[in-house]
Amino acid sequence: MARLKLNGVNENLSVLVSSKLTGADDPEIVLDAILTIFPEFRCGLPSKPTFPTLQNDIIAAEGVPLDGFLDAIHRQAILDTSLDFMSTNLDSTGTMFQISRQAAMSGKVAFPLPGDTPLGGVIVVEIGGENLEDWLEAATWHNGRENIPRRVRDEFTMDGQGEAVTWH
Known about the structure:
By secondary structure, the protein is an alpha+beta fold. 25% of the residues lie in helices and 19% in strands. The protein starts with 12 loop residues before the first strand and ends in a 29-residue tail after the last helix.
């Protein structure tokens, strides 16, 4: 059966993608990293910083389709990990998660552990909407779930340090 292609647009979800620029972050390089995973991200850029700099800007765009991100996690076969990270901060209003900008530059999705600040910074993704739990499960669905079903915050969810919960 072919995978249902979700993208978050016209699915009653709000999507905000952002990244904080600090220090010597080059806005164009950060934008390139974001565009690798979110090709329809559009925003204005601040000026390139000059040394010394106190740069502290945020670039952000609303209504960004998630299809590039979803394609990447399917390609990388990290769907259960993605479900766990995408739902860690899930509440009745939405969810927020981060991905590594450095990994994004090479077309990969990597989720930093809570409290970690990865080299190169992060891209923040905020998703809001009703029935978001069901949407996250559908967006990360794969054939293996026919044998081992997964749900948001089930007994297979990784622990707070990102370690897998063994179940054999």
